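Structure tokens please, single chain.
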Amino acid sequence: MKKLFLILLPIFIFTACLSDRKEKTGITPISIIFETDMGNDIDDALALDMLHKYSDEGKINLLGVMSNKDFRYSLEYIDILNTFYGYPDIPLGIFKKGDTLNMRGSNYDSRVCRMEEDGNPKYKRTITDYESLPAASKLYRKLLSKQPDNSVTIISTGFSTNLALLLNTTADEYSPLSGHELVAQKVKLLSAMAGSFNRDDYSEYNVWMDINSAKEVFEQWPTEIVFSPYELGEKILYPATSIENDFNWTKNNPLTDGYRSYMRMPYDRPTWDLTSVLYVMEPDGDFFNKSPRGDVTIDEKGVSHFSENELGKHIYLMTDSVQQERILNYFIDKVTKIPLCYQ
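Here you go.
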């Protein structure tokens, strides 16, 4: 009987978790699609953690997660996180090999995916066949077509590849609109961790990895884009002391295992991707200063350029030292919060 109880316990917890979420009232959730190069740097995992915590609070509806890397461990680690936090059914789109550049790269994601306990995988997965997942550009069309006009926010914390592919899609079974038309109709905001605006000789990594796509997206994307640049997240370091001390509620956690696997502990790591999430959730909070409106362009070397234009659709974020401390405290509080399914 005890063995049966242990088998059924996760089902009971997950059912209760869903029930708790449905009981939340008075909150109009933001519909979000998360675009990530999961596995290159640990900040993508911290950003997804935040999104799941906002889902627990009923503040967002995470429509889907898109990986812009053609690499199994990136997909598998996202699946592990979604399953761990109690969101196993979130649609996952992938970058398909042959679409354009072959985006690979691995770090902590492969290490966590290979972890074992008592001879079995340490963490549960939900997806059984990662090769069968849809191309992100196709899943974007499916998800966007079902949403109200001007309602979806895309948070991009990786390369612009999937977004460029989306813009270039044509009418299909989901919508008669082109990709550009569909984005213009359904998307409210693109919040992008991309670019650098305090140097005229630096190609920020997310831009540099696919310069052509970044150039196309930033020049042709039909909605507002808010940029969280390299120099912003670089100044706000998530502390190793929090990873070591603030997760005593569980022995096994794919987030903290990922952090410990990324680099030799202890180390503090920039929070680039988390800032793009924070802006979406707290656009009017006293966390950021904003540039004037303008236009962001990318040159042939991948360097970001900003020119003021009061009719432009682009702004970039800045912070002072007081805001940086405020943001860091916010991040620690959010990331260390116990997920609803484990409370």
